[in-house]
């Protein structure tokens, strides 16, 4: 589903990504982990075509479509993005609109311009929006002003919008970074359920390693713009996590062993 080959990106003299090669199969749920500045969010922006790589640098394919090649984003990127759902930490919802109207915006790409401008979506898309809200557990909030929702509820609305978009790939960039633990688990459980039931390919960037271990079978770890690990999440070791996170990993490993997720207990042993 996603193929990244020989990708490099620099901002002035700062190297953000270096010789990135990764391949994600259809239906996988993959975590991108790394400390701040590791390049995980930059990589996500390249995959959806929001950022162009360095000149003469690599290729990115999503579902067989060339998103960018040799530092040039495809001219057809808008059409290609209709099949790629992107979920941001900031939700990117219109606060003054109802939840249902925000979710219906996922159908804009197949809605005539004037009707989209007026918010007149096709009946089948409106029905799809309500089904999507029901699937993420906030159907009762459909006509509520979006700005009144909690952070976790807004993130689930963003996921519902991606469902209305009929995305085949979900790229979630730090979707739980600003959420409390309970809301974070609900959002991650929702992503996992969609991955399992619909076969949607999910790639999620995470700063919290324990969520990667709990929800994502495969993890790609980045450090200073390079991939330092790509494999089964269960094989992550404590030494590797300490190398990635430094002092930030202390809180994770200072917990009592019985409170740690089982895979982390094994890594700490």
Highlighted features:
disordered C terminus; 11 helices; alpha/beta; globular; five-stranded antiparallel beta sheet; 269 residues; six-stranded mixed beta sheet; single chain
What is shown here, in short?
The protein is of the alpha/beta class and 269 residues long.
Fold topology:
Blueprint: E1 2-11, E2 14-24, E3 29-33, H1 40-47, E4 59-62, E5 65-69, E6 72-73, H2 77-81, E7 84-87, H3 99-104, H4 113-118, H5 123-135, H6 151-164, E8 169-173, H7 181-198, E9 201-206, H8 209-215, E10 218-223, E11 226-232, H9 238-245, H10 250-253, H11 262-268
Helix pairs in contact: 5-6, 6-7
- Global mean pLDDT: 88
Low-confidence stretches: 252-269
The main pleated sheet reads as: 6 strands, mixed
Number of helices: 11
Measured between the Cα atoms of the first and last residue, the distance is 36 Å
Structural class: alpha/beta
Order of helices and strands: EEEHEEEHEHHHHEHEHEEHHH
Rg, Cα atoms, Å = 19 Å
- Write out the strand line-up for the largest beta sheet, numbering strands in chain order: 7-8-9-3-10-11
Strand content: 15-25%
Helix content: 25-40%
Instruction: Specify the overall morphology.
Output: globular
């Amino acid at each position: 589903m996603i193929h990244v080959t020989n990708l490099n990106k620099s901002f002035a003299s700062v190297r953000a990504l270096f010789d990135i090669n990764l391949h994600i199969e259809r239906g996988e749920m993959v975590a991108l982990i790394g400390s701040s500045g590791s390049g995980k969010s930059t990589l996500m922006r390249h995959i959806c075509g929001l950022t162009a790589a360095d000149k003469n640098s690599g290729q990115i394919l999503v579902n067989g479509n060339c998103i960018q090649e040799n530092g040039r984003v495809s001219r057809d990127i808008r059409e290609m993005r209709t099949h790629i759902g992107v979920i941001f930490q900031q939700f990117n919802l219109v606060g003054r609109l109802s939840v249902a109207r925000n979710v219906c915006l996922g159908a804009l790409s197949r809605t005539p311009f004037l009707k989209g401008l007026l918010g007149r979506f096709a009946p089948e898309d409106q029905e799809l929006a309500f089904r999507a809200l029901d699937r993420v557990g906030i159907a009762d909030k459909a006509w509520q002003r979006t700005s009144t929702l909690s952070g976790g509820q807004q993130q689930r609305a963003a996921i519902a919008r991606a469902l209305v978009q009929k995305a085949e790939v979900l790229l979630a960039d730090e979707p739980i970074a600003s959420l409390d633990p309970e809301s974070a688990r609900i959002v991650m459980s929702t992503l996992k359920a969609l991955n399992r039931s619909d076969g949607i390919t999910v790639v999620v960037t995470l700063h919290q390693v324990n969520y990667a271990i709990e929800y994502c079978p495969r993890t790609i770890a980045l450090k200073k713009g390079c991939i330092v690990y790509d494999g089964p999440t269960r094989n992550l070791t404590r030494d590797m996590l300490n190398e990635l996170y430094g002092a930030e990993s202390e809180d994770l490993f200072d917990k009592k062993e019985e409170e740690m997720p089982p895979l982390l207990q094994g890594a700490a042993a």
